[in-house]
TrEMBL record:
Pathway: Aminoacyl-tRNA biosynthesis; selenocysteinyl-tRNA(Sec) biosynthesis; selenocysteinyl-tRNA(Sec) from L-seryl-tRNA(Sec) (bacterial route): step 1/1. PANTHER family: L-SERYL-TRNA(SEC) SELENIUM TRANSFERASE. It catalyses: L-seryl-tRNA(Sec) + selenophosphate + H(+) = L-selenocysteinyl-tRNA(Sec) + phosphate. GO terms for biological process: conversion of seryl-tRNAsec to selenocys-tRNAsec; selenocysteine incorporation. The keyword Cytoplasm applies. It is an enzyme of class 2 (transferase). Homodecamer; pentamer of dimers. Binds only one seryl-tRNA(Sec) per dimer. This is L-seryl-tRNA(Sec) selenium transferase. Keywords: Cytoplasm, Protein biosynthesis, Pyridoxal phosphate, Selenium, Transferase. Its cofactor is pyridoxal 5'-phosphate.
Length: 460
């Protein structure tokens, strides 16, 4: 060891002495003895490493209390931190999809604090069935005979196939063998469910006779999958669930993906397929996600024929895939909002954000621009720019929603500045997530409701 490094090691303060320092009292109060001591040990270790490798003390050694406070604060951040979603994608899978309605938030808090009638029929005083109350609500909303709720739509598809098609053949059009982000692929799910996939038709065209020619003694199901994240255009032909149901006595099951419980065209939005329409057309079972367009919690919802739902409820996989009481509480509260459609666009955050007018978002952008100009104007040109937001989560891949963004263009034309700005905003206490494109950083304001909170972040 050199004399220099010996001198440096001797400058490292002893943990005991630091703990007696008055600057550490607030940290001990806030985080407790164990965590503060563990943090100091890790800091001592880091300082020794720096002496070994660089023969120098890290700069934070000037103020151990401040450095410890910083580390403890960072280590106390929740794994699920709130962010500002200004990406322009309303149902952003990586940011947790649908925001829950206040009614759902309250219902979840109640279900967490108190015992609830999850599998208990309060009137009969007997053991009930956990999906029962929600099934009644779903039947009212979709015209179904019964319903089953699982963890997510991927689980719903797996359960339908495993319970009704295991060891048998399931016929699907080649145009509908979808892959959804996060490795959900129809052929893989078929295999996991123990079904034999029978592909019919071609990528762009599938006819009724393709399905009927493929039906044999081993066929259990005809399956339709909504091509939610792509569109095949041009010389195309697909067979509707209604045609399949009319032409065959086999159950027709439909994976609808997003599945909207209301006709979105009444709000001037592009129409998405609705579970009630698929059932009316003769589908035996329809599955969809709770946290896409329905605007509820993550869940897989299956609606349809009583006898088939009963088979799903009895299957051992149902127990493994069932939803928990918090999910059911949030879903119940969300579905109840649909019973009052006049207020839905106000109360359901997903619909509230999707139905925001471009003029309203543009005004908001104009309102925020001057303060941002004062703060960032030297380095960036800041404009209010028309933009197209998307629904996200595989809904309506082609249709876009006109809105407005604040765009930041580096005055010196250097792209590196955009990345640096985006990175700085990602490190804020409440990170601000935009997108970089076209030589600018875009903050799409469609999903901005807490204006004051955003400005507090960006102006600090
Ligand atoms: C989104 C989607 C799924 C997966 O649903 P999760 O709720 O994310 O599990 C399955 N099929 C289709 C067609 C989808 O759009």
């Amino acid at each position: 060891m050199t004399t220099d490094s010996r001198l440096l090691y001797s400058q490292l303060p002893a943990t005991d002495r630091l703990l007696r320092d008055s600057a550490f009292q607030p940290l001990l109060d806030a985080y407790g003895h164990t965590r503060v001591v563990n943090t100091l040990r890790a800091m001592q270790e880091a300082a020794r490493l720096a002496i070994r490798e660089r023969q120098a003390l890290p700069s934070w050694c000037d103020d151990w209390a401040a450095a410890a406070a910083d580390r403890l604060a960072r280590g106390s951040q929740s794994a699920l931190r709130p962010v500002f979603n200004l990406t322009g994608t309303v149902l952003h899978t990586n940011l947790g999809r649908a925001l829950q309605a206040e009614e759902a938030v309250e219902a979840v808090a109640r279900a967490m604090r108190s015992p609830v009638t999850l599998e208990y029929d309060a009137e009969g005083g007997e053991r009930g069935h956990r999906d029962r109350a929600l099934a009644e609500l779903l039947c009212e909303l979709t015209g179904a005979e019964d319903a089953c709720i699982v963890n997510n739509n991927a689980a719903a598809v797996l359960l339908m196939l495993a319970a009704l098609g295991a060891g048998k053949e399931v016929i699907v059009s080649r145009g509908e063998l979808v892959e959804i982000g996060g490795a959900f692929r129809i052929p893989d799910v078929m295999r996991q469910a123990g079904c034999q996939l029978v592909e019919v038709g071609t990528t762009n065209r599938t006819h009724l006779r393709d399905y009927l020619d493929a039906v044999g003694e081993q066929t259990a199901l005809l399956m339709k999958v909504h091509t939610s994240n792509y569109q095949i255009e041009g010389f195309t032909k697909a067979v509707e669930a209604a045609e399949l149901a009319q032409a065959s006595t086999l159950p027709v099951i439909v994976d609808l993906g997003s599945g909207s419980l209301i006709d979105l065209s009444q709000y001037g939005l592009p129409k998405e397929p609705m579970p009630q329409e698929a059932l009316a057309a003769g589908a035996s079972l329809v599955s969809f996600s709770g946290d896409k367009l329905p605007g509820g919690p993550q869940a897989g919802i299956i609606v349809g024929k009583k006898s088939l739902i009963a088979a799903l409820q009895k299957h051992p996989l149902k127990r493994a895939l069932r939803a928990d009481k918090m999910t059911l509480a949030a879903l119940d509260a969300t579905l109840r909002l649909y019973l009052h459609p006049e207020k839905l666009a106000e109360r359901l955050p997903t619909l509230r954000l999707l139905t925001r007018q471009a003029s309203d978002i543009n005004e908001q952008a104009q309102r925020l621009r001057p303060a941002l100009e004062a703060r960032y104007g030297d380095e960036f040109q800041i404009d209010v720019t028309p933009c197209l937001s998307q629904i996200g989560s595989g809904s309506l891949p082609v249709d876009r929603l006109p809105g407005a963004a604040l765009t930041f263009t580096p005055r010196d034309g250097r792209g590196g500045r955009l990345e640096a700005l985006a990175a700085r905003w990602r490190r804020l206490p409440v990170p601000v997530i935009g997108r970089v494109g076209d030589g600018r950083l875009w903050l799409d304001l469609r999903c901005l409701e807490d204006e004051a909170g955003l400005m507090e972040m960006l102006l600090q």
